[in-house]
TrEMBL record:
It comes from Lipomyces starkeyi NRRL Y-11557. Residues 168-196 are annotated as: Disordered. This is Shr3 amino acid permease chaperone. Keywords: Membrane, Transmembrane, Transmembrane helix. One of its GO terms (biological process) is endoplasmic reticulum to Golgi vesicle-mediated transport. One of its GO terms (molecular function) is unfolded protein binding. Pfam families: SHR3_chaperone. GO terms for cellular component: endoplasmic reticulum membrane. The chain crosses the membrane at residues 12-30, 60-78, 90-109, 129-151. It comes from the Eukaryota.
Length: 196
């Protein structure tokens, strides 16, 4: 039986995505100043670098919690796509693509950026550009996670609407059968006799 949008696996996806959005929100104070403040000062970049250094040197248990939350989100997708319905294929397939895109951006840009913060090797760009790459990558990840949440809410709405239409159709069919049965009963009664 296909997994519905009201299942435990959907809760895993929603909780994981919401938690990850919360983690990204913590970084917004620094990302906003480096990305959208006109002419950011060196002090702004120094604060952002200090923040990212703190994140890069966090205890391993915190990294494991973060990766476990990501894994729970992926587990939710695997469960939902095990025996997919049509809505699972569309909504959950799209959500999985967005979730994986965010994960790839994290691994290629954010995680590598944290290593660059620690060792000071920014490759072909300067430090300020490297910090902005980390910040912009986190904004991209936030949009992918918002897309996941939007598709999951859309799937829920579509299923509720489909259930309403199905219930309405069944009600109309039941009324039609009852009406035909009453008409059939009237035809089978002998003429001149009154129905009791």
């Amino acid at each position: 039986m296909p997994t519905s949008s009201r299942s435990f696996s959907t809760s895993l996806i929603l909780c994981s995505s919401s938690f990850l959005l919360g983690v990204l929100f913590v970084n917004w104070t620094y990302d906003h100043k480096t990305l959208w403040t006109p002419n950011p000062t060196a002090e702004v970049f120094a604060l952002a670098k200090q923040h990212y250094t703190l994140l890069a040197t966090e205890p391993v248990i915190i990294q494991h919690v973060f990766h476990t939350v990501v894994g729970l989100g992926l587990l939710g997708f695997v469960i939902k796509l095990y025996k997919p319905s049509e809505s699972n294929k569309l909504f959950d397939g799209g959500s999985l693509v967005l979730f994986m895109a965010g994960l790839i951006v994290y691994l290629t840009n954010v995680r590598r950026g944290f290593y660059s913060v620690l060792d000071g090797d920014w490759g072909d760009v300067d430090e300020h550009t490297g910090i902005n790459v980390i910040a912009a990558s986190q904004v991209i990840i936030a949009f992918t996670l918002l897309g996941v949440l939007g598709l999951q809410v859309g799937q829920y709405y579509a299923e509720v609407q489909d259930d309403r239409e199905q219930a309405e159709f069944e009600r109309e069919q039941r009324e039609l059968r009852e009406r035909r049965q009453q008409e059939g009963d009237l035809r089978t009664t002998p003429e001149g006799k009154k129905d009791k």
